[in-house]
Amino acid sequence: MQPTGMAHRLAGAPLLPPAAARLRERAPAADYTISVDVVPLSAGDPRYARAWDDLARAASEPNVFAERWFVAAGVANLPQGEGARMLRVWRGAPGGELIGLFPFAILPRYGRLPLRHVQNWLHHHSFLGTPLLRAGQEQAAWTAILTALDQTPSAVGLLHINGLVEAGPVHRALIAAAAALHRPCDVVHRIERALLQSELTPVAYYEATVRKKKRKELKRLETRLAEQGAVVLRRLQSGDDLTSWCDDFLRLENAGWKGSAGSALAATPGTDRFFRDALAGAHAAGRLEMIRLDLDGRAIAMLVNLYASPGAFSFKTAFDEDLARFSPGVLLQLENLAVLDRPDIAWVDSCAVEQHPMINSLWAQRRSVVRVSVPLSGWRRGAAFRVARAAERTADALKNYRRRPRPTQPDEADA
What pLDDT shows up at residue 8? Predict the structure, then answer.
């Protein structure tokens, strides 16, 4: 059972009563004070902005979708930001060293259950929910987050976190923090998506991953495409006009099936502006890469990578479906393997759906991304957690039962 629903406006008691504003935690070989506060997701204090950017650089797990410029683009343009808040964890008094940021909302439903609960905030174009936690301070930050929510009357039900890298340092720290508070941390859903991670060169990786017959076919398609006109590979340069590149991408995507289905970024002014704002923020932060294949000066395939060393995220891709017989999207992905030569990048998250046919045929590694649930303190919250988990286990059991092969019935003539 997967929780769904948009963020709704928080109501009721204050988000953090005074008793929860300052917490004592014990760190190895040192005692220090941890402070917690909650602000609107779009808070724009310049000092806070600098602290946020510093935390992103020092985070134990990089996540561009939790960085300031990406969150700001979503909050400003997408409706899913309504009611969301940011829980900030400081070492020392507020305004000291920022060690954790946890965007969250209180949602009215947990899957099909009418169960209000706390969930990390994501919008539809965020492909990872890992919060930014300072390296070395992950468990302390999680303990502070859980304790603050425990002491907040409006934080009802359970805590559900969507989009953690399974067994990564942030997930492991959450398990440890929950265990120290004598509560479970259950994985309730899991997907595996393609990951690009190798010490091989781009050519060696391609040869090791893609079978020879497939490589021969792609070479044939590349030759056939070149027969249609001048094919040029381009990468966004510092002096290029980002606006025109965004125009080309949005036009290309809108001309395909997403445009017909009304799900293209250009389909609504909000998603159009979000895309432009997010890429402008990434460009200003030095995190953006755009690659394109042009045919006679017209874009026929484009992709957007967002970088957060030592990782990267393949954010968006589009191709001319009228030229699908030449596989321009696949040919562009082959050029994207050049990222393996970058010394500052160890892996690239595809951000693709599970079993994506194109990406899975080119990228051999996999990343497990999970949803987890943790009970908050109090018997009512504990009961809500148990009800939710019982419903999930029942749903899983039914799915497994339906997937079981039925025994073959003997033919009546042979009986």
Answer: 28
Residues facing residue 40 across a β-bridge: 85
C-alpha–C-alpha distance, residues 376 and 4, integer Å: 20
Beta bridge partners of 91: 34, 97
d(C-alpha 304, C-alpha 279), whole Å? 9
CA–CA separation, 89 and 336 (whole Å): 37
DSSP character at residue 309: T
Measured CA to CA in angstroms, residue 172 lies from 122, 138, 187 at distances of 21, 9, 12
Structure tokens at 123: 């919008």
Give the residue from 300, 298, 284 showing the smallest Cα distance to 335: 300
Closest CA to 59 of 144, 163, 169, 165: 169
Residue ranges for the chain with pLDDT beneath 70: 1-31, 43, 406-415
Q: pLDDT tens across 358-382, in order?
A: 898 999 999 999 999 999 999 999 9
d(CA 370, CA 161): 9
Q: Which residues pair with 318 in a beta bridge?
A: 302
The Cα 386–Cα 119 span in angstroms is 17
How many CA atoms are closer than 13 Å to the CA of 272, on its beta-carbon side?
12
| Side-chain half-sphere exposure of 153, counting CA atoms within 13 A | 7
d(CA 217, CA 214): 5
Q: pLDDT, tens digit, for every residue of 378-401? A: 999 999 999 999 999 998 888 887
Which pLDDT belongs to residue 165?
A: 98
